[in-house]
């Protein structure tokens, strides 16, 4: 019998655990590194072995699984379907094992030393990271945070533990303007706060001279700045305008709200953005008005995988994020 047959045969957990002695677990660590790096050389560096040793390990893995696992593709090395299917559950299992061996069951923040990895938009970072870091500094001086880019497969990264938490904007009324921000059904979520939209301009903007309101006619005549992390495609407002047979001119696209605030403070561009942006220090010198069209509200939502719901350290971090976002006051 192929020594890995039991691994995929749908046997009970007890049988699977009992048969682990048939496998050199170092091979699974190597497979995880190969799956993440898509490179023998980089996988060798990640695991601290020579390239020759990793090449030998890959040959053993190919024999073990009766599959090439990693092959040359047009843009470099790519995983076979078998390796793709193994990557997430393997990573998840290794992370769970590492945490079990490295940490006690109880979480004592004052003595803990670890790094939490979160995915969050730059507006959240500007508004809440200072308060969160201050809170962590008092309660857990050796606990660090790392804000990381959104991975291609966020749900997979949350499941494996490569990302601990994600802060995500979710439209509360996504139809008919579905922008792909729905939460994966398997993930746990907690709404931190609800937010609406306002229009931000410099204080002495000519469009506001003698006006208390920004009309839709004026709004569509002005030049706009769009915060677009991807750098392309229409924004939510543009889709709403299009549905009404209207459009606006996007004179500038930028990936971050911090950049947008600096630009509108020194130009006649208009930024339509979440109302919570008013809490940024840079926005204190700006004027804002309600958006002159109906834009669906959105929720700033915290996401995590159910595997970590009862994890003491994970729960502690979630509670701290809930605490620092609770005082949000919107216009």
Structural commentary:
- With 331 residues, this protein is α/β, with parallel strands linked by helices.
- The protein is 39% helix and 21% strand.
- It has 3 domains: 5-102, Arc Repressor Mutant, subunit A (Orthogonal Bundle); 114-194 and 299-325, D-Maltodextrin-Binding Protein, domain 2 (3-Layer(aba) Sandwich), CATH 3.40.190.10; 197-296, Periplasmic binding protein-like II (D-Maltodextrin-Binding Protein, domain 2), CATH 3.40.190.
- The protein has a 5-stranded mixed β-sheet with strand order 4-3-5-12-6. Strands 9-8-10-7-11 form a 5-stranded mixed β-sheet.
- Helix 3 packs across helix 6 (81-102) and helix 4 (40-47) packs across helix 5 (51-65).
- The model is unreliable at 1-15 (pLDDT under 50).
Name the features:
331 residues, alpha/beta, Arc Repressor Mutant, subunit A, D-Maltodextrin-Binding Protein, domain 2, 3 domains, 5-stranded mixed beta sheet, 12 helices, disordered N terminus
What does this entry show, briefly?
The chain is α/β, with parallel strands linked by helices and 331 residues long. Helix content is 39%, strand content 21%.
Mean pLDDT: 85
Helix count equals: 12
Structural class: alpha/beta
Tally of structural domains = 3
CATH uppermost class of the largest domain: Alpha Beta
Shape: elongated
- Uncertain segments: 1-15
Query: What summary fits the major beta sheet?
Result: 5 strands, mixed
Terminal CA distance reads 67 Å
Report the order of strands and helices.
HHHHHEEHEHEHEEEHEHEHEEEH
Helix coverage percent of residues? 25-40%
- Kindly identify the CATH topology of the largest domain: D-Maltodextrin-Binding Protein, domain 2
Name of the CATH architecture of the largest domain: 3-Layer(aba) Sandwich
Question: Numbering strands along the chain, what is their spatial order in the largest sheet?
Answer: 4-3-5-12-6
Tell me what portion of residues adopts beta-strand conformation. 15-25%
Count of extended strands: 12
- CATH level 4 superfamily of the largest domain: Periplasmic binding protein-like II
* Rg over alpha carbons: 25 Å
